[in-house]
Amino acid sequence: MMDSIIKTLRQAIGDEAILEAADIAERATSYWDSAPMRGKALALPRNTDEVATVLQTCHAAGQSVVTQGGLTNAVTAAKPNDDDVILSLEKMNRVIEIDAIGSLAVVEAGAVLQNVQDVVDEAGLRFPLDLGARGSCTIGGNIATNAGGINVLRYGMIRDLVLGLEAVLADGTVLSSMNRMLKNNAGYDLKQLFIGTEGTLGVVTRAVVRLFPRPSTRHTAFVALDDFEHVQALLVLLREQLADSLSAFEILWQDYYRFVTTVGGHRAPLSPEHPFYVVFESEGNDAALDEQRFTHVLTTAFDNGLIDDAVIPKSDNERNAIWEIRENFESILECDPVYLYDVSLPVGEMATYVDTIKGNIKARWPNGECYTMGHVADGNLHPFVCPNEPVDGKAISDALVYEPLRAIGGSVSAEHGIGMDKKDWLDQSRSDAEVALMRTLKSTLDPQGILNPGQVL
Amino acid sequence: MMDSIIKTLRQAIGDEAILEAADIAERATSYWDSAPMRGKALALPRNTDEVATVLQTCHAAGQSVVTQGGLTNAVTAAKPNDDDVILSLEKMNRVIEIDAIGSLAVVEAGAVLQNVQDVVDEAGLRFPLDLGARGSCTIGGNIATNAGGINVLRYGMIRDLVLGLEAVLADGTVLSSMNRMLKNNAGYDLKQLFIGTEGTLGVVTRAVVRLFPRPSTRHTAFVALDDFEHVQALLVLLREQLADSLSAFEILWQDYYRFVTTVGGHRAPLSPEHPFYVVFESEGNDAALDEQRFTHVLTTAFDNGLIDDAVIPKSDNERNAIWEIRENFESILECDPVYLYDVSLPVGEMATYVDTIKGNIKARWPNGECYTMGHVADGNLHPFVCPNEPVDGKAISDALVYEPLRAIGGSVSAEHGIGMDKKDWLDQSRSDAEVALMRTLKSTLDPQGILNPGQVL
Question: The complex's ipTM?
Answer without folding.
Answer: 0.94
